[in-house]
UniProtKB/TrEMBL annotation:
The protein, known as: AlpA family phage regulatory protein
Domain of life per record: Bacteria
A Pfam family this chain is assigned to: Phage_AlpA
Coiled coil ranges: none
Length: 66
């Protein structure tokens, strides 16, 4: 039986450390629907599911290999 690890949330600085673009470009891509949307944690706090960011990075890698 395989146990799954709990979902981890990444704040913006961690996300920006993993993707090859700026904060502004990240939010442009969210608005365009081409980057995972964040999860709202509170009135002024958001985070991203680590699994969503990892899938996005995998997708970028696959597209660049074409």
């Amino acid at each position: 039986m395989q146990t799954s690890s709990p979902a981890r949330l990444l704040r913006l600085p961690s996300v920006l450390g993993r993707v090859p673009f700026s904060k502004s470009e990240t939010y442009r891509r969210i608005k365009a629907g081409t980057f995972p949307a964040p999860v709202r944690l509170g009135s002024r706090a958001v985070a991203w599911l680590e699994s969503d960011i990892e899938q996005y990075i995998q997708k970028l890698a696959q597209e660049s290999a074409k």
